[in-house]
Amino acid sequence: MSRISKEEVKHVAHLARLEFSEQEVEKFAHQLDAIIGFAEQLNELDTANVKPTSHVLDMKNVLREDKSVKGLPREEVLKNAPDHQDGQVRVPTILE
Description:
- The protein is mainly alpha-helical.
- The chain is 38% helix and 4% strand.
- It has helices spanning 6-15, 22-42, 74-78; strands at 84-85, 88-89.
């Protein structure tokens, strides 16, 4: 017995503005049913002594320290701008 019907797949596809052929609907219904089966297998595991985690590995902050550094000189930045005026980059007006 399938836990996901073809009508449910079509309904979700409609909500997501997706269009599938009948063959694809059948395929996705089967795949989603298999995914639910795998998730149900997890309920059979004894996790009483397993601490909740957000990641499998014990991760530390892997980013570099945030340090303030002096930016580029204004003249160097503006020489790459297609248009500039009064020390600022000019862009086309988008609101009137």
